[in-house]
Amino acid sequence: MSLTNPPSSAGGPLTTSSLRPTAASNLNLKRTVQAAFDDSGRSGSGYTSKVHVRERYHIVGFISSGTYGRVYKAIGKNGKKGEFAIKKFKPDKEGELIQYTGLSQSAIREMALCSELNHPNVVGLEEIILEDKCIFMVFEYTEHDLLQIIHHHTQPQRHAIPAKMVRSILFQLLNGLLYLHTNWVLHRDLKPANILVTSAGAIRVGDLGLARLFYKPLNSLFAGDKVVVTIWYRAPELLLGSRHYTPAVDMWALGCIFAELLSLRPIFKGEEAKMDSKKTVPFQRNQMMKIVEILGFPRQETWPGLGAMPEYNQLQSMMQSMKMSSRGGMHYNKPSSLDTWYNQCLKNGGYSSSNNTGSPGAEGFDLLSRLLEYDPTKRITAEEALDHPYFTNGGPISANCFEGCENKYPTRRVTQDDNDLRNGSLPGTKRSGLPDDSLLGRAAKRLKE
């Protein structure tokens, strides 16, 4: 993999060039963090680890759990300085018996990619340790994520994220995405919970569990993973069953994140239809309707490839039913109302160039509309976005997104109870009807709106 030179983010201005509960919880047992971390299901393996996790790290507490394992906060010891997040991949369990079926494809991809990627705006991997049939990925520790920051701005009442802070977040995020896309990596699961933020205001693209290389794949990307990207951030070409997709899916997700930073709620908050027992991928009608309500219906005149989409007939059926249910077909024919949504969002958030919050202005709307473009071939790229007037015309961009910000954001919640279920109400967890996350840490809790 050929890696490009990353821009510096050591502070100062930036430039445009530059986990489910374990079996123990079913028995109402509460294990300590230390016991859970040490539980590797030892079965007398003849393998002897050359490196022991506890020789290098002191486990402070439990952060979160996901599909493939648990994440713990740790502090380096014996000369190793700093704070770290350790992701422990768990073996498959059948009752009290541990069945070793190997690592998931997602875990292997994440380890392979993170071992080679090196950029200030992509989460840094310290090392990978194999010990007693358990694999530990040791990452740098980040104190916040965007989901946590967004939630903070809804409590005790809604107060807008400063426009200057939003601009810094997006600029750093785009730098990370440009690095990934330049090196043929699709993230495929961008959402606020997966965007990490250090105490120094540096943005890190995190959780590469669904990421994969897209340079000359042997099969279509759809063949390997039929469902990618959490539903609220899923691009229309994915909703319409595209077998071949591009980095444009990440750019759509970025547009959804941009909108969420401004409005403090997901712009397209649909309900996900689950796959049936035959693992048939359903048409996500409700999610598509949420997009249509703001962007209007996609048209073949502006999206030439629309008619070739596998789910195009489903889209037509949805259009016909909406046409019949609307008076005179007005809803069916309505144009995009993204500008109305945007202006109302600025008004509700109190964004104004005359106050301390500032405003993303007309240039912010133009960038958002180009990110939320239906046709993926016309959607703005990361490289083009970095040269957009939204970034080039607004003065210097700080490498610290918190610079000048009066808010003091709470740090990530770390517990001593490995069976803590209080993160179950977070968007992106099974309790809220979305797929489990295997995050490198997440917000303390996000209340239902």
UniProtKB/TrEMBL annotation:
Its EC number is 2.7.11.22, 2.7.11.23. One of its GO terms (molecular function) is ATP binding. GO terms for biological process: negative regulation of filamentous growth; negative regulation of transcription by RNA polymerase II; nuclear-transcribed mRNA catabolic process, non-stop decay; positive regulation of transcription by RNA polymerase II; protein destabilization. It is an enzyme of class 2 (transferase). One of its GO terms (cellular component) is mediator complex. Residues 57-391 form the Protein kinase domain. Keywords: Activator, ATP-binding, Kinase, Magnesium, Metal-binding, Nucleotide-binding, Nucleus, Repressor, Serine/threonine-protein kinase, Transcription, Transcription regulation, Transferase. It catalyses: L-threonyl-[protein] + ATP = O-phospho-L-threonyl-[protein] + ADP + H(+); [DNA-directed RNA polymerase] + ATP = phospho-[DNA-directed RNA polymerase] + ADP + H(+); L-seryl-[protein] + ATP = O-phospho-L-seryl-[protein] + ADP + H(+). It is found in: Nucleus. Residues 1-21, 413-449 are annotated as: Disordered. The keyword Nucleus applies. It comes from the Eukaryota. Its cofactor is Mg(2+). Belongs to the protein kinase superfamily. CMGC Ser/Thr protein kinase family. CDC2/CDKX subfamily. Component of the SRB8-11 complex, a regulatory module of the Mediator complex. PANTHER family: CELL DIVISION PROTEIN KINASE (PTHR24056), CYCLIN-DEPENDENT KINASE 8-RELATED (PTHR24056:SF495). This is Serine/threonine-protein kinase SSN3. It comes from Talaromyces islandicus (Penicillium islandicum).
